[in-house]
C-alpha cells in the first residue's frame, strides 16, 4: 500500500508539471521510475502507455479547435509507426533478455533528455527564427518539408521507442523549424495528434513483443496524474511558465548527461 500511494503521488506530481509547463510526460516520468528502482525497460514501456493515455484528451480538444494539421500527422506517422514497430521487433529478436539491451535504452534516454532540454532552453530563439526569412539550409528543408517530415518521423519512432522521450517538445521544435508559418496552436495540436498513436504503438510494442509494461504501476500513475493535469492547466495562467520551463530544462539536461555518460 505505501508503494501504491507513492506511485499515485508521483503521477500527480508529473501530471501537475505537465499541466503547468506542457512538458514532463516521458522526460520526467521515466527517470523518476528508474529512481524508484524499476528496470529501464519496464520504466520506458510503462511510461509510453502512460503518455498515450494522458495525451489522448488533448487530441479531442485540438480537434474541436481545428488546430491539427492531419497531412503533417500522416507524414510523421508514416515514418514513426513502422520505425517504432521495427525497433521493438529487433530488440526482441536480437537480445535474449532485457538486461542485454539496457545500455541502448540508457544512452537513448540520455540523448533524448539532452535534446528536449536544449529545445526548452532555446524555444524562444527557435520561434524567433521561424518568424525570420530562412537561410539556404532553411530553404532546403522547407522545400523538401514532406520528405524531411517523413525522415523525422523515422527518427522519432526509433528514439521514442527506446527512451519514451521526444514525442512532445522535441517533435514540436521540428514542426516549428519545418513549418514556420504554422501557428503555435497548430504546432501543439499536430504534435499531440502524432504523439498519441506513436506512444501507443511503441507502448504496445514493449508490451506484446518485450513484456515491458507494469499495469499496476500504470494504473497508479494515471490515477494521480489525470486530475493533476487539469489542476496544473488551471494554475498555469497564474504562474511564470517561462521560469518553470527553464528550471525543468536544466533539470532534464543534468539527467540527460547522467544517463548518456553512465
Biggest sheet overview: none
Q: Percent of residues in helical segments?
A: over 70%
The residue-averaged pLDDT reads 85
Compute the CA-based radius of gyration.
Answer: 17 Å
Please trace the helix and strand order, writing H or E for each element. Answer: HHHHHHHHHHHH
Can you tell me the number of structural domains? 1
| End-to-end Cα distance | 33 Å
Query: What characteristic shape results from the CA principal axes?
Result: globular
Supply the number of helical segments: 12
Class inferred from helices and paired strands = mainly alpha
Low-confidence stretches: none
Measured by DSSP, the beta-strand proportion falls in under 5%
Strand elements, count: 0
Question: Can you tag this structure with a few keywords?
Answer:
83% helix; mainly alpha; 12 helices; 262 residues
Q: How would you explain this protein's 3D organization?
A:
There is one protein chain. The protein has one domain. It contains twelve helices and no strands. The chain is an all-alpha fold and 262 residues long. The radius of gyration is 17 Å and the shape is globular.
In a nutshell, what does this entry contain?
By secondary structure, the protein is mainly α.
Topology:
Layout: H1 2-21, H2 25-35, H3 40-65, H4 70-94, H5 102-121, H6 123-131, H7 136-143, H8 145-163, H9 169-178, H10 184-210, H11 215-236, H12 241-261
Helix pairs in contact: 1-2, 1-11, 2-3, 3-10, 3-11, 4-8, 4-10, 5-8, 5-12, 8-9, 9-10
Amino acid at each position: 500500500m505505501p508503494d501504491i500511494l507513492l506511485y499515485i503521488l508521483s503521477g500527480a506530481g508529473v501530471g501537475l508539471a505537465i499541466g503547468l509547463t506542457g512538458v514532463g510526460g516521458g522526460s520526467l516520468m521515466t527517470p523518476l521510475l528508474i529512481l524508484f528502482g524499476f528496470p529501464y525497460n519496464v520504466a520506458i514501456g510503462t511510461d509510453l502507455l502512460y503518455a498515450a493515455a494522458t495525451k489522448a484528451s488533448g487530441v479531442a480538444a485540438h480537434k474541436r479547435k481545428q488546430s491539427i494539421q492531419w497531412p503533417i500527422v500522416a507524414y510523421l506517422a508514416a515514418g514513426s509507426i513502422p520505425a517504432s514497430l521495427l525497433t521493438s521487433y529487433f530488440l526482441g529478436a536480437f537480445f535474449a533478455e532485457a538486461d542485454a539491451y539496457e545500455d541502448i535504452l540508457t544512452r537513448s534516454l540520455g540523448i533524448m533528455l539532452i535534446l528536449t532540454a536544449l529545445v526548452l532552453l532555446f524555444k524562444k530563439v527557435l520561434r524567433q527564427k521561424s518568424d525570420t526569412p530562412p537561410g539556404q539550409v532553411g530553404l532546403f528543408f522547407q522545400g523538401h518539408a514532406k520528405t524531411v517530415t517523413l525522415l523525422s518521423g523515422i527518427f522519432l519512432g526509433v528514439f521514442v521507442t527506446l527512451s519514451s522521450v521526444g514525442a512532445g517538445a522535441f517533435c514540436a521544435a521540428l514542426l516549428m523549424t519545418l513549418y514556420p508559418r504554422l501557428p503555435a496552436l497548430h504546432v501543439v495540436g499536430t504534435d499531440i495528434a502524432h504523439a498519441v498513436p506513436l506512444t501507443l504503438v511503441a507502448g504496445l510494442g514493449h508490451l506484446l513483443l518485450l513484456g515491458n509494461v507494469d499495469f499496476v504501476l500504470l494504473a497508479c500513475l494515471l490515477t494521480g496524474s489525470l486530475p493533476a493535469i487539469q489542476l496544473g492547466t488551471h494554475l498555469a495562467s497564474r504562474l511564470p511558465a517561462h521560469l518553470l520551463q527553464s528550471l525543468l530544462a536544466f533539470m532534464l539536461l543534468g539527467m540527460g548527461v547522467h544517463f548518456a555518460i553512465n
